[in-house]
Amino acid sequence: MSPTAILTLHVVLGELCVVGSLWVFVDTLHATEANLGRIRAVSLTAAIAMWLAYLIAGYWYIVYYGAEKALILKGPWPFAHDVCMETKEHLVIMLLLLVTYLPIVVRGNLASNRAARSLALWTSGLIFVLALVAEGFGSMVGMGVKVALLPH
Amino acid sequence: MERSVTPRREEELSNFAVSFGISLAVTSIASALLVVAKERSPTTVLAAMKSATGHHWATHSLCALLLFLAIGFTLTRTNGGRGPRIATACLVQVVVGGIAVGSLVIGGYYLLAA
After folding, report:
1. How far is A40 from chain B (nearest CA, A)?
2. A-contacting residues of B 53-82, CB under 8 Å?
3. Residue among B20, B57, B88 whose CB faces A89 most closely
4. What is the pLDDT of residues B62-80, one digit of tens each?
5. What is the pTM of this model?
6. Statement: residue B9 has pLDDT above 50
7. If you placed Cys at B53, which of A18, A49, B30, B58 could pair as Cys (CB 3.0 to 4.6 Å)?
């Protein structure tokens, strides 16, 4: 698989996780017996998407990122690696644990169990925020490469 | 007229939800501390993590995942197989606190180190 395909898949799957977590959050706010199946299905989808995004990005990071890192560090935005990439690559480990935890939480009856509903809201909310931060840092890394390639 | 107030009984969370919630918080903080340890000790901790799988990040991910599973499954067996007893509000605080502390340690470390 080409690096372009790997990066595209990584971004698409990451977005799927963002949208999925937001979907679970909103659906949980209006949880009834009717949408429990959908909440569980979307939770699982978000978890699978994040796992795939993680594995694909991990492969890319280990195999291809070295060259980009060298470019970024020589360019005008070294913080794109020193802060954004370093923080992102470790924050996503927590994100991976959170998405693994979400399907466990939504196995409870969210329609009748207030405790499970509260925990599902917090878990999906945290996933949404962390995934957005990861997306933002990913964009900064991309910009770090771009500005390094510009004539200066 | 005196109204009778019946206290609302909060439903309990499943054994797995509580156990893996606690595990999530503990693992997040442990993972953040491992970040600081490997960055501060490149010749020992970082080198050992690199040699374990070929890349420190792969080792880090594996350690976090194994710790999450180990703590989670161990906790499910406590209390006679019923898992830890903890109020929902407290569990939410533990989970959110663990993620917040872990994120702040990681972000703060790299921000200060840059």
Report:
1. 14
2. 54-55, 57-58, 60-61, 64-65, 68
3. B57
4. 999 999 999 999 999 999 9
5. 0.92
6. no
7. B58
CB contact under 8 A, A114 and B58: no
Mean pLDDT in chain B? 91
| Residue numbers in B near A91 (CB within 8 A) | 103, 106-107
A82 inside 8 A of chain B by CB:
yes
Residue type, position A129, single letter: V
Considering CB atoms only, which of A61, A78, A122 is closest to B96?
A122
Question: What is chain B's length?
Answer: 114
Which residues in B lie closer than 8 A to residue A63 (C-beta atoms)? none
pLDDT tens, position by position, A3-45: 889 999 999 999 999 999 999 999 999 999 999 999 999 999 9
- CB of A63 within 8 Å of a chain B CB? The answer is no
Q: What is the pLDDT of residue B19?
A: 97
How many other CB atoms sit within 10 Å of the CB of residue A74? 9
CB B72 within 8 A of CB B23: yes
